[in-house]
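Deliverable D5.2: sample structural annotation.
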Amino acid sequence: MNFRTTLIIIVLLAGIGGAYYLFFQEPSDKAVENEKPPIHQVYDVTRDAVQQVEIAFADAAYQDLKLVKDTTDNWQLARPFQADADSEKVSQMLDDILNKRVKQTLEVTELAQYGLDTPSITLSLSTEGDLPTATFLIGKKAINFSVYVKEKSETHIFLIESSALDDLTKSPTDLRDRSVLKFNPETVSSIQFKHRAAGSASQSSTINCEKRDGTWHVRHPLEAKADTQDIEDLLSELRSLKVSTFEADGADTKVQLEKSGLDDPRIQVELTDGDKTYAVNIGASVGSETGTQGRVYVKTTVYQDAAYTVDEGIYHLLNKSVFDLRDKRVIDFQRTDTIRIEIKQDRETTVCTKNFDNIWELQTPTGKIKADAEAVDDLLFGVDSLEAAAFVDDSTGRLASYGLATPSIKVAFTQRGEEEPTVLSIGTYTQDGTVYVKAEQSPQVSRVKRTLIDKIAQGTAWLRDKQVLNFHIDDAIRLTSTLAGAPAFTCQRLGTNWRLTTPVQEDANNAAVNGIIYALDDLMAAAFVGSKSTPTDSATGFSNPNVQLTVELRNQKVYTLQVGNQVDASGRFYARLQHEPNLIFLLDAELIPKLKTTLELIRTSEE
């Protein structure tokens, strides 16, 4: 093949390729897409401009719908009944249909063959007034996942995606707002709870609460401060409550009332939010035969002709007694600003102060000692969060009946910058294990659980630092150990080593001796025994201790620890320091083996 022939072939192939590109190549997706405008562009109807939507169905199994946008731009269901619509769902439905692209336009004369003489769905959209801006008739499905559509006023028809049928085939339930009540919890100013007495259709009790200066108060049947946080939580949960099922609407609701217990509701709650009033009624629980246990029937006054079911938790949320709604805190003070605590009981006074380093110290007859920071925090937090187990509402003038005319214990909390302390008075114990208490600044007498009160009654024993000894291990120069039923021994420190001095004189096992010294230095009492509950000598076993350890320091101080009998099944042991015989404390059982070392082990040479 010569050069001329080759050139001719190349030219012919280039021509064929160019012709194919010009006449047969499909346009790009972008070009095709641009040639298919969306419905909202063709008919100049945007989602946000639509004020009214009507959907009519040829199939009688579906209810015709009418949706109207209110003055706050929220959608309302106007037909087949009135109800709040879910604005987000309505907007999504409009987006779905208005963003459909017109695939193809057809000029036709006969509508029946396209299902447009009796359309399956008629969609009317109004942007101003009641007259439709555009009405779309949706007919039969076509090939390529399309459906025939006609705008009512036009002669031609067009094709769009057949998913439009699913977009518009909606029931009232599909588009309804499932919020039971729509209100602003922060602006509610009053609440009324009305409870039907159990087993009685005529007797009921009412509780009224009112918000004043940001704080909730019970107004009826008594005047008392309410638990603001609990009420705010209740309002928040009520606002977020959603419908589980829509049971009845319109005329059907009257038939449903007796079955659902809504003709005589168990609970009625009414809220005042500005100039609006909202109410919800709680009826009977849903019967087990329906297979939907765990729900209750409800009805609101916003839509009288509607009955719903919701999670039965709403019944427990709203079934409140006066006690449930009251502020149960016994005393009000700022625990973080407290700088002095004073506990007075009988002839004993415990004083605990915070120094400039924010360290708590106890004032004792022998001077200041470090307080147990954890115990002080437990006291402050415990009293600050102390809640009434019951209120005594007839306490005026009867303080002596509760041991509060002359309290057995008074606890005073002095706060930084305050001259007068906040005082908690503690009275007598009751048979049910509670204790009468009263804040000095309040006339209210309450009963509280005794757990915290029992700790307060220990006074210094509870609040003192639990470290038994406080020395540096290198300061220990002599150790004497006496174990019940075993030979006693004494060790002397020589430099960095230990030497037995009695009953034999020889080098000691340094590791064994240092182990006891470390145990003494780290020794922590599990608890101190208060002066009111001091056990007898026979109970403690101090007359013949199980363990007695004496450590002498370089500064000539001498401490003797005595460990007596086991207390009880808890496994703790009585212990004390010999120079403070009345200050008895308890040691956990796992500490005792660390304090016990026999002469035989002390004599064992180290490898």
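Annotation notes: Confidence is low (pLDDT under 50) at residues 18-33. The chain is about 20% helix and 35% strand.
The annotation will be released with the project's public dataset once the embargo ends.
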